[in-house]
Amino acid sequence: MSTPEVHVRNGFESQDELAQAAARELVTAIVHLQRTQPEVRLVLTGGGAGIATLRHLASYDHLAARSADDFPMERIDWHRVLIFFGDERFLPVGDPERNDTQADEALLQHVSVPAENIFRYGAPEDSSLDDAATAYAQTVREQAPDGFDIHLLGMGPEGHINSLFPHTPELKNPSDLVVAVRDCPKPPPERVSLSMDAVNTADEVWLLVSGSAKAEAAAQVAMRADEEFQWPAALASGKKKTLLWVDEEASTQLPE
């Protein structure tokens, strides 16, 4: 079987410039999908580049609303977007370290997405870690039976995506579409995460990568050079498209 091509988006001097460009293209991509289907299933990510992209997405939505009469711009119909999260830190609702809290502050509180369209992971006050994973897997099966449309991903210096780290059981032998993660290499130790199988149900996977510490991992993604689960991000592949967004510092080791 041939290896799917990774399309590189580069030439950005900074993380913020990358985030602006990714947000603009995301608006165009979602609006295009909404012309032909009733709902768009979007998976959000945390991390510096991911949250910066969400902030710019909110800004573009605000700008489009203000210019609607004088100079119409493309604008997402948020009532027709279903929001999922790639992973979550298993912390109390509203904790500032939770991805959904950060996404609320950056984007979701500023656009007209209905609360019932946002699918969040359980928290310690209402669920065990295993139950939270099981419940979210069922949500994914019910709300995204054919997979996601676009999955945004951040990436760590060692190539981790969501809460899937190199050589871990959750990466190598997922039990379901969502996995309970214990003893995570980064704090907090307990998390819930979409499995790699779930990531790869997405039509489009967008990796948002910035900083020199991630240059080697970005190159591994571009080359699809995974060896024995060493670089998890290199295993992420959209069914139709895989985009690797890199700023100048993260692009220094990309193949010519």
* Largest sheet: spatial strand order: 1-9-8-5-2-3
Low-pLDDT segments, ≥5 res = none
Rg over CA atoms: 17 Å
What's the CATH architecture? 3-Layer(aba) Sandwich
Which fold name is given in CATH as the topology?
Rossmann fold
CATH class: Alpha Beta
Average pLDDT metric: 94
Number of strands: 9
List the secondary-structure elements in sequence, H or E.
EHEHEEHHEHEEHEHE
Helix proportion of residues, in percent? 25-40%
Strand content: 15-25%
The structural class is alpha/beta
Structural shape: globular
What's the story with the biggest beta sheet?
A: 6 strands, parallel
Number of helices: 7
Number of domain units: 1
Topology:
Layout lengths: L6 E6 L2 H20 L5 E5 L3 H19 L14 E5 L1 E3 L9 H8 L22 H15 L6 E4 L15 H4 L5 E4 L9 E4 L1 H4 L4 E6 L5 H9 L17 E7 L9
Parallel strand pairs: 1-9, 2-3, 2-5, 5-8, 8-9
Antiparallel strand pairs: 4-7, 6-7
Helix pairs in contact: 1-2, 2-3
Keywords: Hydrolase
Enzyme class: hydrolase
Pathway: Carbohydrate degradation; pentose phosphate pathway; D-ribulose 5-phosphate from D-glucose 6-phosphate (oxidative stage): step 2/3
Which features does this protein show?
7 helices; 256 residues; 3-stranded antiparallel sheet; alpha/beta; Rossmann fold; 17% strand
